[in-house]
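User: My instructor asked us to take a sequence, write out its structure as tokens, and then describe one feature of it. I'm not sure where to start. Here is the sequence I was given:
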Amino acid sequence: MDTKLPTGAHTSRPWRIHELTADFDLEDVWALPTPGGPGDFHRLVEMATKLDPGRSGHPVVRALFAIRWKVGELLGLDDDDSGLDARVPSLRDRLPADLRDQRLPDHESLPFKPLYETEDEFAAEIANRTVHGVLHLGWVPDGEGGYRGQMAVLVKRNGLLGNAYMLAIQPFRHLLVYPMLMRDFERAWRRGAAAAPA
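Assistant: Let's start with the prediction itself. The structure tokens for your sequence are:
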């Protein structure tokens, strides 16, 4: 099943993230294979922030991420002076007061820094020499009486380098990385459901 969604699946919803990312491009929207009920969103966030692509069940995903981190190290793409509050200000500066005052855990396995979490949204950001990116998770009705997760990726490119980088990785993201990560999501979600007390 193809889980990639049209952009309207994200833009049509009243997410708080829209207030922060008017100058970002929406790259992808994916339906997550995480069926649940109205109160399961925080379980999705906990699970998603523990998934480490470098430890994916798929060797191709692990290899691609290992290559990306090695290239980043060699070219200085991820140096401290290219990140949040260095090359670009954090989107935390744009948060309204009700979201800014939240205390969020620092999810160690996620290279993104958390921005906020609500009853049906979670957002986190990352910046390097190529892009300033946002990972957004939402919890949406599935049309069959239940709910499921939805993931969006928003990006602000850093000039010609950012444009070239996003163009170069696009086929890998769409054909390999995201479809395989969806399977990781599904396996982790099922494991969590099986481990939950009856």
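For the description part of your assignment, you could build on this observation: The chain has five helices and five strands. Try explaining in your own words what that tells you about the chain.
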